Amino acid sequence: MSCDFSFEIHARDGKARHGTITMPRGEIRTPAFMPVGTAGTVKGLYMDQVRATGADIILGNTYHLMLRPGAERVAKLGGLHEMARWPFPILTDSGGFQVMSLSALRKLTEEGVTFQSHIDGSKHNLTPERSMEVQVLLDSNIIMQLDECIRLPAPDEEVARAMRLSYRWAERSKAAFERLVKPGEGRALFGIVQGGTNPLLRRESAELLTKLDLPGYALGGLAVGEPQHEMLATIEVTEPFLPSGKPRYLMGVGTPDDLIESIARGIDMFDCVMPTRAGRHGTAYTRHGKFNLKNARFAEDTRPLDETSDCSATRDYSRAYLHHLVKSDEMLGQMLLSWNNIGYYQRLMRKARAAIDAGRYADFVAETKEGWARGE
Amino acid sequence: MSCDFSFEIHARDGKARHGTITMPRGEIRTPAFMPVGTAGTVKGLYMDQVRATGADIILGNTYHLMLRPGAERVAKLGGLHEMARWPFPILTDSGGFQVMSLSALRKLTEEGVTFQSHIDGSKHNLTPERSMEVQVLLDSNIIMQLDECIRLPAPDEEVARAMRLSYRWAERSKAAFERLVKPGEGRALFGIVQGGTNPLLRRESAELLTKLDLPGYALGGLAVGEPQHEMLATIEVTEPFLPSGKPRYLMGVGTPDDLIESIARGIDMFDCVMPTRAGRHGTAYTRHGKFNLKNARFAEDTRPLDETSDCSATRDYSRAYLHHLVKSDEMLGQMLLSWNNIGYYQRLMRKARAAIDAGRYADFVAETKEGWARGE
């Protein structure tokens, strides 16, 4: 435990855990959902709103920010917290995932990956060392190792190769992190367990990374289109090999159902674009389930999305008005639904933590799913 | 003077006037700028923000709202104030201007105009009587007569024909308004002076309308592409024929410069999409002039748009961050610039009122223009 990062578990219920990560920029209550601020903004929300929903930490995308406005420029502007007016913890990914999914002319070697920007075609390279440097320039607090994310399904030998390369990159990421970062800067490095859906490879990856004694571990390579049961099964076979006293972060996940099922299997942290992306496309997540506000059944529904919420977007605007805004393609519709969705995700995390404290997490999951199924 | 509408002038400086319109839903300080909420939302802003910038009244577009969600539906949802969460005064236009500029297959007769919706091709008709009915269904407070807006330049006989038709529609609008509206409902009807840039026709229109003894008068048919000097000249030749104790509303105007020049010529009210539209396109209006935030010179400019402003959008975000958001096409950039612009327009009105009170309106105009020219 250092002043930069500590993790305390307050309560357990089955595999589910309620904890707190403490960092100089603030506490992160877990299970935690991290809203995604891809390019230095959680799309459609003011940071005050993000904070008021209960978010303790947000995520920034290294790939996007290194291309625009550029890591060195973000540093000149005082770092991401200062630039985007979010003084609380920030986690950045390594850039690896988006290099694989967005950039052109990728070339991967043992050394790292070279690629062309999807924005202007400019050439860049990302090595474990450069990824650490970029994340420090961004002033990230939780820094992710560079890993290789492959497309699934893939043959086992390909999955194994990428996992082992990712491990070697973890070693190099750790060495670079230790060179670049001084204690007291409020930064921590997380490793990423890979291995696809193969239990043996996941175990090997977890055991290798555990030896690096990093402050936290992520599960990567999931939420890439596989069925939910495969994702949950992979969590189940990996979790026993992760250190129980450190936070586990399931990258890029997911739906509210994914979240509560993953928490039951020992996951502590999540990030996903879903709440804001769905909000921009007219979808509201609520305790009554998922609403498509384009649907004509809302045209004269004067009820709010949920009158019991403490989030203004959820409580103060009629479904009829939201329907009208979405149908009219008005920015306010996207703003309100994104805000509602981030608010709902945070409310779900708050309730999950309380249920773990009360030793009734399984009941909470059942009740939550009943609410979604019942609708209203 | 009734409980529904009264206008008091507190101070005059040359032709410029500082006044207050009092209506049951609130006071409107004049000179007043009315943010445009076309479809029941001031694009990109929360109503709380609109209010906090100092807006006393917003404008709704009858054409858009009658097509979507529909006037009868807005009434079912409790009216525009209730639907959009704006409890203060609302002015609605008559629908005539947008019928002419947006709809298809228009057919204009003495009776009114039939047209097809630009959204779904559905057929509608708008008569003076239907326009009054629609505006009452929307729960408008300041209701505009139906008028015919022609494209300029046009031959004098065409301008005269449209102006006289508009006058007959004013008579019918007034009769319909009086049938539909009971005293105490908090509504008032404004007439619209037409006549293009022809002084004699403007005078004829103003004199005809004055006889109807309406609580306020608008100047229509301006800000449709003519040079500023023509618009100002038309205000100058019309103003002497408008009742001095009633508010004058210059429809659809304009730039900050248009506003302060028009106030000097006796105008009390304005509306324009410019601040929000420009904001969505990366332009900020400030006391230092108009900034195109796409410009690379802002990329590392850590100053806010104006550190002396009390508007968060203007004071709390760096130009570099705004530049980044605009370049990245992020919603927050549009939100912040729209908010800044509405804030700037309201600040300009506040300063104009204070300058009129102090008898230094001409100095205020000169200083304001110097600030724009100086830049920063």
Short description:
The structure is a homodimer of 376-residue chains. Chain A is α/β, with parallel strands linked by helices.
CATH fold group of the largest domain in chain A: TIM Barrel
Sheet with most strands: strand arrangement of chain A: 4-14-13-12-11-10-6-5
Biggest pleated sheet of chain A: 8 strands, parallel
- CATH-defined superfamily of the largest domain in chain A: Queuine tRNA-ribosyltransferase-like
CATH class of the largest domain in chain A: Alpha Beta
Note poorly predicted spans of chain A: none
How many extended strands of chain A?
Answer: 16
Mean of residue pLDDT values of chain A: 97
Tell me about this structure:
Two copies of one chain form a homodimer. By secondary structure, chain A is an alpha/beta fold. Chain A folds into two domains: 249 residues, Alpha-Beta Barrel (TIM Barrel), CATH 3.20.20.105; 72 residues, no CATH class. Helix content of chain A is 42%, strand content 19%. In chain A, the strands form four sheets. An eight-stranded parallel β-sheet of chain A has the order 4-14-13-12-11-10-6-5. In chain A, strands 1-2-3 form a three-stranded antiparallel β-sheet. A three-stranded antiparallel β-sheet of chain A has the order 7-8-9. In chain A, strand 11, helix 8 and strand 12 form a beta-alpha-beta unit. In chain A, helix 7 runs parallel beside helix 8, helix 11 runs antiparallel to helix 14 and helix 14 packs antiparallel against helix 15. Chain A starts with 5 loop residues before the first strand and ends with a helix. The model of chain A has no long low-confidence stretch (mean pLDDT 97). Chains A and B meet through helix 13 and helix 14 of A and helix 13 and helix 14 of B.
